[in-house]
Amino acid sequence: MSTLMYRPFSSWANNSEWSMRFEEEEVKVVALGTVWVAAITSLNFLRIFTEGGLQRYVLSLDGPVVTASGFKDELVVVTHASPSLPSNDQMLEFRVFNIRNGMQPIRGRLPLT
């Protein structure tokens, strides 16, 4: 179980903070954009919330999350594309989302050395 809490630095209304409780899953990664909050959970769900706390999108990711980062309208998410190889190398995949347009313009493998 997890609780996501949001408190804006500059507020358009008094008491504009909110929280969301996740009963069956645990929040693993949080990323922020200009007017949205992303939470990625232990069940590999990407949940996008508005700054008012309304859940706008729910997406199922292909694997466990590694990291995520937000900037303005863009969100990038890195996940495991497969279990670790016998050499302990990892296969990672990235996805870039445009939250405002609800689009995923870029997706691919993430080569690391």
TrEMBL record:
Keywords: DNA-binding
Annotated signal sequence range: none
CC annotations in GO: nuclear replication fork
Protein name: Putative WD repeat and HMG-box DNA-binding protein 1
Domain WDHD1/CFT4 second beta-propeller: 2-112
Gene Ontology molecular function: chromatin binding; DNA binding
Single GO BP term: mitotic cell cycle
Pfam families, per the entry: Mcl1_mid
